[in-house]
Amino acid sequence: MDQKIITLYDQYTHSQLSRKDFMKKLAIIAGSTALAMTILPMLENNYVAAAEFVSDEIEVENITYGGIDGEIKAVLAKPKGKKNLGSVLVIHENRGLNPHIIDVTKRIAAEGFIALGVDALSPLGGTPTDEDKGRELIGKLDPEKNLQNYLKGLDYLRKRKDGNGKVACVGFCWGGGMANKLAVNDPKLNAAVAYYGAQPAPADVAKIKASVMLHYGGLDERINAGIPAYEQALKDNKIDYKLYIYEGVNHAFNNNTSPTRYNEAAAKLAWQRTIDLFKNKLAVLTR
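Structure for Carboxymethylenebutenolidase, as requested:
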């Protein structure tokens, strides 16, 4: 697919560009409204096309924990019958806690961790089924309260009796930016993994105590513009970090429900690197 179309869709999903204006621009690039309508299903997330992750080795439940102004909804997944586990907080993209991120949460649990997929839109009634509505609601969240709600999610995981007290986070897109924010704002965080997420201010990087892993798509010019300053700050402050750029792939390359942006090879490699980091940083040392 023409990279101009993918770039336009990225602009649409990460700005206040209306659907009407997006479709007008898409029709211009495609050559006609009819072709634009044909292309649209290939751009939008398709949860039916992507196989749901299923494992008999994990248990999954909907839970709530105390937030700033009320209860925060989340999906919790964990290996059956196991304790003393490391925990991972999973942070969704800018459409809310959708089926794809719930699957990611389950996949992390299947790797041997307690995984908590938090619904950041809980204060606004929870994630809607309409993704465009979810994007609108994300923009209405109070940034500081939202940050505190995620920090409380990390505290919830640390206090679980089946956990070992070690906690990491992983976020995608909007959630990748939040993962970076949590690394800055939680000195007890053991590891933070950001997939194509906005970078923190260089002046804040000195606050990071966690090990950081960063995954970027080589074609993602919008997000990648912030890499040089972030990496230099990580180096200057001697932060433990790994940074990977997957050439020839787009923003959201890990999302297997997004057919035009998903890249299986890059997604599998990034995932394995992520799990290896969690196994290294969240395990209990034994003698």
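The beta strands are 58-66, 71-79, 85-91, 114-118, 163-172, 191-195, 211-217, 241-246.
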